[in-house]
Amino acid sequence: MIFNKKIAIVLPAYNAEKTLEQTYNEIPFDIVDEVILVDDSSKDKTVEVGKKLGIKHIIRHEKNTGYGGNQKSCYNKALELNADIVVMLHPDYQYSPKLIHSLCYLIAHEVYQVAIGSRILGMGALKGGMPLYKYISNRFLTFFQNVFMNQKLSEYHTGYRAFSKEVLQKIPYINNSDDFVFDNEMLAQIFLAGYEIAEITCPTKYFDEASSINFRRSMKYGFGVLRVSLSYFFQKMGIAKFKIFEGILTK
After folding, report:
1. Using CA atoms, how far apart are residues 151 and 43, in angstroms rounded to an integer?
2. Which of 16, 87, 181, 210 is the most buried (most CB within 10 A)?
3. What percent of the chain has pLDDT over 90?
């Protein structure tokens, strides 16, 4: 805990057998109270490794629900456990668990309600091996989003995120896609609800065991991002209404 705030780490996993232990062993248990592993019907021994590590809360999807569907189970369980701060950490060891302190203290001190690890601040992305085409598309999409959403994030596509319980309770993340664009829809909901997002520099690693989507899926994701940005713009301007924003009370 930090200031009596309960901290939960959620691990949305798919075929993470080779990297789960290394990720888990670097989680700072001096502040972390709960770890939740959600296995999205992996074809390897992810669940067995999780049990061996002693992870108390393990959920296994009998059918693959997708990256977004996995996160929905993660956040539902974290709220069920009454966590005050929830950190999404990919169990593929692409993001360093050593930044959990920094992310959580920003929220625990009530400076921000959301904090993310940015691969773009500094030179972490390219140094960590991000493919050049992904870096270029990241920069283009982020520019487009900042323009249409009137924000100044360095990137919208990181998978390293921390949320207060208040945010997770107020945004209808359950309405989001079950695919990779879930992350982007979630940020749009957070901004529409009036929250600001803190960013910290986050080194990242690309290697064989690290999860990554192929070029075709990347293209689908990119068009999804453009759709989300335009939906936000039209919703904010009162031109149209979209399901992912239903029930959000703006500040």
Report:
1. 40
2. 16
3. 83
